[in-house]
Design a protein that fits this description.
The protein is mainly alpha-helical and 260 residues long. The protein has one domain. Helices cover 78% and strands 0% of the residues. The chain has 12 helices and no strands. Helix 1 runs parallel beside helix 11.
Length: 260
């Protein structure tokens, strides 16, 4: 694998995994437009996702530690929060299991990523005027946030953007909305990395892997992802989340023009 290509994809993955601009949409469009063909691409994507997973674990390490301690000790608030996370991830898991092949076909046509980026941009701008109230996470809001995460399996639909905006519609404060969104993504990312990793180990692809190159991609995606996550929370607190909506509309429009 070309180290430059790996570095490029690692940076794209690290930035777009957390910013509300759709990492899947960017990778699909970028690979097509630039003609980027990376050997063992599926293996690389597993490693890059593992890197961004690590960045979430590091960024929210104190909150995760507190929840785990509370869960073990039987604290009601921690167990309730864990239950809401489970409720939130179920829709995406079900869609992934029963509609995987259909989703894969969408990823093979970059034009869909461009169209769905326009949808993401519209949703970010459309919810920009929502004000945070004293809203708290409840089973109903967790279900709707989970449904938003399910829709984000489509290329070009931002997972962070759709879940955070949906949470804000329920009056949940931006910082708390981001926290729930990313903590909710941990089981999904871990599941994807584990499932695809097992498939990779069982295949012949392991013989074609450059361990040093993959290790570099992992470290770079984790480092860039941590910085992007910090920036996202900062933008949320300053009320500038909607700026990403304009970006999605611009990139979506340009990609459709290039793919016409």
């Amino acid at each position: 694998m070309d180290w430059f290509k790996i570095s490029l994809l690692a940076v794209i993955q690290g930035i777009t995994e957390f910013l509300p601009v759709s990492s899947s949409g960017h990778l699909v469009i970028f690979k097509h437009v630039v003609g980027l063909d990376v050997v063992s691409g599926a293996t690389l994507e597993i490693v890059l996702h593992a890197g961004t997973l690590v960045s979430i674990l590091i960024f929210y390490r104190k909150r995760i530690g507190a929840l785990l301690r509370g869960f073990i000790s039987g604290e009601h608030a921690s167990r309730r929060y864990g239950g809401l996370v489970v409720v939130g991830i179920l829709p995406a898991i079900l869609l992934g299991l029963f509609a995987r092949h259909g989703l894969e076909r969408l990823y093979e046509r970059p034009v869909w990523a461009g169209l769905f980026l326009l949808v993401t941009g519209g949703y970010l701008l459309g919810t920009s005027g929502v004000k945070a109230t004293s809203g708290t996470l409840r089973p109903v809001s967790a279900v709707w946030i989970g449904l938003a995460q399910m829709v984000a399996l489509l290329p070009g639909i931002s997972r962070s953007g759709s879940t955070i905006c949906t949470a804000r519609l329920f009056g949940i404060a931006p910082k708390k909305a981001a926290e729930f969104s990313f903590l909710m993504s941990i089981p999904l990312l871990a599941g994807v990395v584990l499932y695809e990793g097992v498939r990779w180990i069982r295949s012949d692809a392991i013989a074609w892997v450059d361990g040093w190159a993959l290790g570099w991609g992992f470290i770079l995606s984790a480092a860039v992802g941590y910085g992007a996550l910090h920036w996202l929370v900062s933008m949320l607190e300053r009320g500038r989340f909607w700026h990403f909506g304009i970006y999605c509309l611009v990139v979506g429009s340009i990609s459709l023009w290039l793919l016409r």
